[in-house]
Design brief:
The protein is mainly α and 511 residues long. The chain is built from 19 helices and no strands.
């Protein structure tokens, strides 16, 4: 217990110290929200990766999907690495940085407002972002509860209250730069921690080969595909017992990052061309290790099929699977796990609250309530809203309405379903119309929320994936059928890609 508490105290001390150190880099709105658009490659890459993966992934998703799909759940982590990180950086990174600087857009709703010349789009986007980031934040807290109970026997409410206070301190003090610096430190902890935990868990099962052999002997009787029920070996197979639902999870958790405000925001802050190239590589390898490692570990969950993971009605408490896997580890490793999951969760939480407060201040209050708000007042209100958003999310987390994966699926489905298609197409095409953005908003939110009540699609994960794919189809179709924006206005926006720059010969072979 002494070792675990000492590790936590050191961790908390470093986080707060970074917050105080970063105060001098958060004296105006642009610095507070964007780090002055001068954040280097490693900080940006780690900020992207640590915001991507939280306790939701490590505890909720790894437990649930590892149980359902066995070792094939590792495909989710690989999808996160190559679609959610590598492809996202390659397709969005450079163009997002260039256009958002041209538009002087600091948030995703502000990008929509300025790119499509519509204050109403900006205001509606801010409402969507604010509302649907709340359940995601609550799910981050919820993922910590079982781990803390396992390690310290501390009440869940005490855990989330303390974590919220700590996050509030360094985000309020240092803004984005404090978040990025802490994300870098937390990312290093996550890399070391997941490697240690995987090695320890497999060692407890007699090594990798023995663990796979044990897993291959288990017949999955509860899979969704009737023809595959009861067949041994599926949990250790290439595509697992339910390939189609597995594909839905890959799409939601990988493509979803392209439309999440807190993820895309990282591209706004990139310093230079080198940061894009290096950040692409670093964030991809980070995702391979963290996401691939989490889902790979979760794939062995059925080897820990014990009464503790079952609810009174006989259903499985998926959020208890990973804590149960870790409960037999030595104290030093449990301490590492706690710091690992805290790192993942706090980095995500800080990104979410900063995104929410900046969106509400810049995209709603300044547009609707207080139009002549100066820079100093914006900064004060933004910091106050960081505290307010954390309080709100804690209140929701005290009595979470459902388990982790559902909460995250609803949040990601609505946000990425509404934002992904118009954001992506808006960076590349001059023909996207305002009406198509409204349609994407309505479809993404409508499908996700409607599915909560009417269950058109059984899995909220698949519903979220359908919202994203549907938006990508609808936006270009609606744009073909609705009035185009003023050509001169759009052409002027796209001049940002045509500017001539001078580079060193080592960067270009052009004469």
């Amino acid at each position: 217990m002494f070792v675990k508490i000492l590790m936590l105290l050191i961790f908390f001390g470093i986080m707060i110290a970074v917050g105080f150190y970063s105060r001098r880099s958060a004296t105006n709105v642009n610095d507070y929200v964007l780090g002055g658009r001068r954040v280097g490659p490693w900080l940006t890459a780690f900020a992207f990766g640590t915001s991507y993966f939280s306790s939701v992934v490590f505890v909720g998703y790894a437990g649930q999907f590892g149980w359902k799909y066995g070792l094939a759940s590792t495909w989710i982590g690989l999808g996160n690495a190559f679609i959610g990180s590598l492809l996202a950086w390659s397709v969005l990174g450079r163009r997002t940085r260039i256009m958002t600087q041209k538009l002087n857009a600091r948030t995703m709703p502000e990008y929509f407002g300025k790119r499509f010349k519509s204050d109403n789009l900006q205001i509606a986007g801010s409402a969507i972002a604010f509302v649907f980031l709340v359940p995601y934040t609550a799910s981050v807290y919820n993922g910590l509860s079982n781990l803390f109970s396992m390690a310290f026997s501390i009440d869940y409410k005490v855990c989330i209250t303390f974590m919220a206070l700590l996050t509030a301190v360094y985000v309020i003090l240092g803004g984005y730069m404090a978040t990025a610096l802490n994300d870098f430190i937390q990312g290093i902890i996550m890399l070391f921690g997941i490697s240690s935990v995987i090695a320890a868990v497999l060692s407890g099962q007699g090594g990798f080969i023995n663990a796979v052999a044990k897993l291959s002997e288990i017949a999955a009787d509860d899979v969704a595909v009737p023809a595959l029920q009861g067949h041994p070996g599926l949990l250790a197979s290439f595509f697992g017992p339910d390939p189609m639902n597995l594909l839905g999870v890959v799409i939601l958790t990988s493509l979803g990052t392209w439309g999440l405000p807190q993820m895309v925001h990282k591209f706004y802050t990139i310093k230079d061309e080198k940061a894009v190239r290096t950040g692409t590589i670093v964030s991809t390898f980070f995702a391979i290790i963290i996401a691939g490692g989490c889902y790979f570990l979760g794939g062995f969950g059925r080897l820990f099929d014990v009464p503790a993971i079952y609810k009174p009605d006989g259903s499985i408490a998926f959020d208890l699977i990973v804590p149960q896997m870790l409960s037999t580890l030595p104290d030093i490793l449990i301490g590492i796990v706690i710091v690992l999951v805290l790192s993942a969760s706090m980095s995500t939480l800080s990104s979410l609250v900063l995104t929410s407060s900046s969106t509400l201040t810049l995209d709603f209050l300044k547009k609707v309530v207080w139009k002549d708000m100066d820079d100093k007042k914006q900064l004060v209100i933004m910091r106050a809203l960081v505290a307010g958003f954390i309080i709100l999310s804690v209140v929701l987390a005290m009595n979470p309405p459902t388990f982790i994966a559902q909460m995250m699926g609803i949040s990601w489905g609505a946000l990425a379903g509404a934002f992904l298609a118009p954001f992506l197409y808006g960076l590349y095409s001059r023909n996207i119309t305002r009406a198509s953005v409204w349609v994407s908003y309505a479809f993404g939110v409508g499908l996700t929320v409607g599915n909560m009540f009417f269950k058109w699609i059984k899995s909220p994960i698949n519903a979220g994936a359908a919202a994203m794919i549907g938006g990508l189809i609808l936006v270009p179709i609606v744009s073909l059928l609705t009035p185009k924006m003023d050509k001169e206005t759009v052409d002027e926006i796209f001049t940002c890609y045509d500017e001539t720059v001078v580079v060193h010969r080592t960067s270009s072979l052009e004469e």
